[in-house]
Amino acid sequence: xxFSEQSKASIISCIKEAISRYMGGSEENQVVTxxxxxxxxxxxxxxxxxxxxxxxxxxxxEDWVDYDEDDFDTEVERILRNILNEMKSGGxxxxxxxxxxxxxxxxxxxxxxxxxxxxxxxxxTVVIDEELMKGLDEDLDKFLDDLMKK
Length: 150
Hints:
The protein is of the alpha+beta class. The chain contains five helices and five strands. A five-stranded mixed sheet has the order 3-2-1-4-5. β4 (102-107) and β5 form a beta hairpin. The chain is globular. The model has no long low-confidence stretch (mean pLDDT 88).
């Protein structure tokens, strides 16, 4: 997928607009919510919601408008995860008035969770993707078989 700086800026702006509703405030008044990101391939749009399905922001991502390949979800998940991690590293989520842990969640057209893109908690939690976990079941089974033989 071709991905321009303009599209990246649109996504960052959309995320910043969404989280601006949760900036500042006191610990006693923290909100309990996750942030849901819904990319829509049919119209090239990114819509961001909270847990109550209240729309927080919306943007057109130019590079998504005419993209009709089957790998849309895979590509967009990678792009969103990278952007969110960059924003986290830059401190964009440090002053949010959202009770930890909370997540940025990729959702489909029916607003069903597809995957967690970023988990924010007191520690540095890493979201492990499928590629990293390939073969783990087989390795664990082999390890347990070897252990039981001894």
